[in-house]
From TrEMBL:
Belongs to the protein kinase superfamily. Pfam families: Pkinase. The keyword Transferase applies. It catalyses: 2 ATP + phosphorylase b = 2 ADP + phosphorylase a. The keyword RNA-binding does not apply. GO terms for biological process: glycogen metabolic process. GO terms for molecular function: ATP binding; calmodulin binding; phosphorylase kinase activity. It is an enzyme of class 2 (transferase). InterPro entries: Kinase-like_dom_sf, Phosph_kin_gamma, Prot_kinase_dom, Protein_kinase_ATP_BS, Ser/Thr_kinase_AS. The lineage of its organism: Eukaryota, Metazoa, Ecdysozoa, Arthropoda, Hexapoda. Keywords: ATP-binding, Calmodulin-binding, Carbohydrate metabolism, Glycogen metabolism, Kinase, Nucleotide-binding, Serine/threonine-protein kinase, Transferase. This is phosphorylase kinase.
């Protein structure tokens, strides 16, 4: 994009003098309904940050204004600050038309994008990420705050590939045993009690447990790359959530051990009172396996965007995308696949050695091939790669504008009652 065009979209310099005096805004890192997040540089120190720029000009007087909502977000960010897995708010600037929230920069972007690039995470990586998420959520809850919008888009990865929970736009500090009623969050991650109290009269409100449910949805999605309750008909998805109807029957689950399945089953319990607590989740056998420094180092290496594996898949996907036929590459690829097949057959612990014959008739059964197929398909077709049993990877892209939630609720209400 041309520089002037980029600058055109930047808030009026006069309206935000203080911010521009201190920071040099750069490219866009992400967008929300009324916010744009840009990388920016502290002019004095040269240090990089992320500035969330909130446009107040579209505020309507009838609803909670962006100004009020942002003030609440700032208050909560300051209240939960001081934990390694929570995003740090560095600076705030206000002008009549814009608010600037300056955060520490997470160079490795969203967990969502990382997941999309690798399709699914191994148990080891899931353990590493989920432990941090649960510890971050434990800290938030210890401050009496419920996040209400936990999802891979709101979990960032910093330079050291540690997670940072961000986007406290829906977070709420609870007073005493206060219960909440409002319908907010992202459809696929909503807890059954949030839906129930909005759809069924006289149902109790909801509380901290909604974040634990969202952790279950995240963990399921990390392990297999598709979310547990997705259905192309939103109403069916919401009903599945309310009934806690999900399964481990898709072929990806065959390679996954019992401990993570057990933890997911305990996180995705419909009754919030019977749902596992964060404390118990953190001591669940899934987390008993020690992660040694060595493990973490190699893990971090493979998590890095410039890792060999990532770039290999990207290259292949790019080739497919641009429809470039490279016979040499294709030949090398075939050799690699055959070699991998031989290695798979030799594996002592492979429960059911698969022959090349099997690979020809049902390649998706082979984990390695499945990963490659999914990785390429993901890049080429993105949102319409169909999965069995009404599940669809499209759900990963389900990031409905927050304001649409009310509409979904209104549309679906009649079908439920
Ligand atoms: P919204 O409330 O509009 O969803 P978020 O706070 O979630 O706003 O930010 C939107 C997106 O901007 C994030 O999903 C992420 O891609 C990017 N982003 C936000 N904060 C940072 C940060 N500190 N470092 C890097 N990227 C960020
Ligand atoms: Mg967000």
């Amino acid at each position: 994009m041309a520089k002037e065009e980029e600058d055109d979209k930047l808030p009026d310099k006069h309206a935000a003098k203080e911010f521009y005096a201190k920071y040099e805004p750069k490219e866009i890192l992400g967008r929300g309904i009324s916010s744009t997040v840009r990388r920016c540089i502290d002019k004095e120190t040269g240090k990089e940050y992320a500035a969330k720029i909130i446009d107040l000009s579209s505020d309507s007087p009838s609803e909670m204004t962006s100004l009020e909502a942002t003030k609440q977000e700032i208050e909560i960010l300051r209240h939960v600050v001081g934990h390694p897995y929570i995003i740090e708010l560095q600076d705030v600037f206000e002008s009549p038309t814009f608010i600037f929230l300056v955060f520490e920069l997470c160079k490795n972007g969203e967990l969502f994008d990382y997941l999309t690039s690798v399709v699914a995470l191994s148990e080891k990586k899931t353990r590493y990420i989920m432990k941090q998420i649960l510890e971050g959520v434990r800290h938030i809850h210890s401050k009496n705050v419920v996040h209400r919008d936990l999802k891979p888009e709101n979990i960032l990865l910093d330079d050291n590939l540690n997670i940072k929970i961000t986007d406290f736009g829906f977070a709420k500090q609870l007073i005493d045993a206060e219960e909440l009623q409002d319908l907010c969050g992202t459809p696929g991650y909503l807890a059954p009690e949030t839906l129930r109290c909005n759809m069924i009269e006289d149902s109790p409100g909801y509380s901290f447990e909604v974040d634990i449910w969202a952790c279950g949805v995240i963990m399921y999605t990390l392990l297999v790359g598709c979310p547990p309750f997705w259905h192309r008909k939103q109403m069916v998805m919401l009903r599945n959530i309310m009934e806690g109807k999900f399964s481990f029957s898709s072929p990806e689950w065959n390679d996954i051990s019992d401990a993570p399945k057990d933890l997911i089953t305990k996180l995705l319990v419909v009754d919030p009172k019977s749902r596992i607590s964060i404390e118990d989740a953190l001591t669940h056998p899934f987390f008993h396996t020690m992660l040694f420094d060595q493990d973490i180092a190699s893990l971090k290496q493979s998590l890095r965007r410039d890792s060999r594996r990532y770039s290999k898949i990207s290259q292949i996907a790019l080739k497919i995308h641009h429809r470039v036929f490279d016979p040499r590459q294709k030949f090398q690829w075939a050799i690699r696949v055959v070699r991998a097949m031989v290695r798979i057959q030799r594996l002592k612990y492979t429960p059911e050695p698969l022959s090349l014959e099997t690979a020809r008739f049902d390649p998706y059964r082979l984990r390695l091939l499945r990963k490659v197929v999914d990785g390429c398909a993901f890049r080429v077709y993105g949102h319409w790669v169909k999965k069995g049993e009404g599940q669809n990877r499209a759900a990963l892209f389900e990031n409905l504008p927050k304001t649409d939630l009310k509409q979904i609720y209104v549309n679906n209400l009649n079908n439920f009652t």
